[in-house]
Amino acid sequence: MYVVAAVAVICLVCLAIIARNWSCRKKRDPRPPRIETVGPYEVLSAETGASLKVKISKRRDRQVILDMIAAPAEGNPFSSASADNLRKLAGKSVTVQYERRGLFRSSDGLVDGEVQPEADGAEARGILTGIVFGGSGINLNLAQVEAGYARCHDDGPKEWEKAEAKAKKLGFGIWSEAKE
């Protein structure tokens, strides 16, 4: 009987110590995203107003999607104008700034030249999503929004939302129909 009471007291003391130490532990800030820049890549074509096809090596092409914007879909009267504007702004080469997902994965989703099974679907298919800069250093994501050829997603930067509001007010690109 005394042994059971002694074990119970010891367990309660241990639990109190653990709870005290656990609650006093400093919380660590979450890790910031790992942002990487890749390129320059030669621009082959503008597939839509929010995606480019680039050449990353002699035998490999890759699709680059402009993050946090949405361009007019195929069939929309402004879709070809949006793609033409993107191609003009991009110039001959682009660099891409993106958030790295894999721990030991290179910028093109390969490790030692082979696609890794843990690569997510987009990386395995050769799609890169990020903020794209033209050869002149212009932010193509923002430039498309400023020209009125793309909309900013809700999670986009405030600067881009302001640019969209200005393009809408002035009736640029896709907003010209709304102004009439």
DSSP strand content: 25-35%
- What is the level-2 CATH architecture name? Beta Barrel
Question: Rg, please?
Answer: 25 Å
> How many strands in all?
9
The CATH class name reads: Mainly Beta
Based on Cα principal axes, name the global outline. Answer: elongated
- Distance between the terminal alpha carbons, to the nearest Å? 90 Å
Pairing-aware structural class of the strands and helices?
A: alpha+beta
What would your notes on this structure say?
The protein has 180 residues and is α+β, with helices and mostly antiparallel strands. It has one domain (34-179): Beta Barrel (OB fold (Dihydrolipoamide Acetyltransferase, E2P)), CATH 2.40.50. The chain has six helices and nine strands; from the N terminus they run H-E-E-E-E-H-E-E-E-H-E-H-E-H-H. It has helices at residues 2-24, 79-90, 121-124, 140-146, 158-170, 176-179, and strands at residues 34-48, 51-55, 61-66, 69-70, 93-100, 110-111, 114-115, 127-134, 151-152. A five-stranded mixed barrel has the order 1-2-3-8-5. The chain has a two-stranded antiparallel sheet with strand order 4-9. The longest helix has 23 residues, at 2-24. The model is unreliable at 103-124 (pLDDT under 50).
Brief overview:
The protein has helices at 2-24, 79-90, 121-124, 140-146, 158-170, 176-179, and strands at residues 34-48, 51-55, 61-66, 69-70, 93-100, 110-111, 114-115, 127-134, 151-152. The chain has 180 residues and is α+β, with helices and mostly antiparallel strands.
